[in-house]
Amino acid sequence: ALPILTSEGDRCAVCGPKRRSQWAQQRGPSPYADPQWRKLSAQKRKEQPWCELCGHRGSPQNPLTADHLHPLNQGGALIVPTYMLRTLCRVCHGKITKHK
């Protein structure tokens, strides 16, 4: 019999915790837990309440996220002006950033 896959966010129940654990070991706590970032992200999603690529307006299964135009892993800053962010749905964000 084939295993039944369950989802935890945008990753399966096995890969989600594994990926978070890898992040913590490699980089320490996620910068996205920062209260200043959470406020900035919410502000951007309020200004632009749909995905800039596909037009999706967000849902529990595919929520909107604020994405840095200059990624953190390429030297970008966490806290930037909102014009340096774009609103993407989780599906488009995953396609663009190619998270693994």
Radius of gyration, taken over Cα atoms and rounded to an integer in Å = 15 Å
How many beta-strand elements?
4
Alpha carbon gap, first and last residue: 26 Å
Structural class: alpha+beta
The biggest beta sheet is recorded as: 2 strands, antiparallel
Q: How large is the count of helical segments? A: 3
> Approximately what portion of the residues adopt beta-strand conformation?
5-15%
Q: Output mean pLDDT.
A: 84
As laid out across the biggest beta sheet, the strand order is 1-2
Residues in helices, as a percent range: 25-40%
Rough shape?
A: globular
Present the secondary structure layout.
Blueprint: E1 7-8, E2 11-12, H1 15-27, H2 35-47, E3 64-68, E4 85-89, H3 90-97
Antiparallel strand pairs: 1-2, 3-4
Describe the protein in words.
- This protein has three helices and four strands; from the N terminus they run E-E-H-H-E-E-H.
- It is α+β, with helices and mostly antiparallel strands and about 100 residues long.
- Strand 1 and strand 2 (about 10) form a beta hairpin.
- The longest helix is centred in the N-terminal third of the chain and has 13 residues, at about 15-25.
Q: What are the main properties of this structure?
A:
two-stranded antiparallel ribbon; about 100 residues; alpha+beta; about 15% strand; 4 strands; 3 helices; two-stranded antiparallel sheet
